[in-house]
Each structure stands twice: as C-alpha cells, then as structure tokens.
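Deliverable D5.2: sample structural annotation.
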Amino acid sequence: MRSPIAGVVTKLAATLGATVDPSQPLVEVADPSALDVVLYATPSEAARVTPGAKVALGAGQGATAEPLGIGTVVDVGAAVEEATRSVAVRVRVPAVRRPLRIGETVSGRIAVAVKPRAVVVPIDALVPEGDGYKVFVVDARSVAHARPVTVGARADSVVEVTSGLAAGERIVTYGAYGVADSAKVVSPEQAGASTAREKP
C-alpha cells in the first residue's frame, strides 16, 4: 500500500491481520506543508467576509497570540454548524513563520471595512449604562464628565464610537468603572510624579 502524497500519518484504522472492507479508509495522511486554517465566525461576521480577503493569523487567541503570517480566505461556509452555531471560514496559508501542527489552535483577524476618520477608544474606556455605554470626558481642569456614546465596530482592544465623542477629546481609559461624574482625575504619569515628590 502506497500513499499518493508525502506526509505524516494522522490516523491509523487498520489492525494487523484483521479483515477490512475495500471501501474502508485504513490510513489518513496529511501534508503539513499544505495546511489550510479553518476559522469560525458568527453568521453576521461571516456575511461580511469574502473570498480573497487577507487574514492576519496568530497561534492562540486574543492579544497574546503569536503572529504567524498572512493568509487568504478561499471559502466561506454556506451553512451554520448546528453544534457551534458558527460559520466555517477556510483560509489558505502560503507561508508562516513556523510550521503549524495539525489541530493547533489558530486565530485570525480579517479587515472587513476601512474607515479612515473613525473615532476609536480602548474597550476599557467604555462603562455600561442601561442598554448602552458611556465614557468619561476630561476637560481642561482635569474634571471627568460622563457622556453617553454609541459604539460601532469592535476589534481586540479598541471599539469605534459613532456618536457622542469627537476626535481629540481626552477620556478616562484606566479605571473608568470607578470614576464618578464630575470627579477630579489625574493621569498615571501625574500620579507617579506626585508619589515621587512625597518620598523623603
């Protein structure tokens, strides 16, 4: 028995001396140099992804993922998987920074739109309020004022603000959950300088 491709054995279903059916697969062989990555997206996310889109791939998930390289979307599933309620997005990977292992967890970021003048803020700056969000805008006297905002697209660590905030306005990005309206705030740099002066 000879494999039609060179690769590694990923599954062995044959037992020495056992009788097998001619239609039964005995060995599965994969070529590690020709792997595709399958990502899973929600139906609403998948609707905005098209074949040919570039994908920034990383080993692992979130901001700590190890960068692997750029892939290309070759197929977007037409059906929602019943178990996960997600849509499979197949990505072709021409070259990566290191060999991938079959079954390895890989994440991807796909740019589905470009908004050159978008106002974005760190996700940590958003404070839930009712059915929406608010941010704390800092005025010239370093006083924080709560202001409701409308959010749009999201990425790993930032979110688009579509209304309620103008580009260039200062906001609280650290410890926003503990800030009260009209409270005096200081930056981490100012707090560090104050502490340094107080030391003997």
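Annotation notes: Residues 15 and 160 are 57 Å apart (CA to CA). The mean pLDDT is 82.
The annotation will be released with the project's public dataset once the embargo ends.
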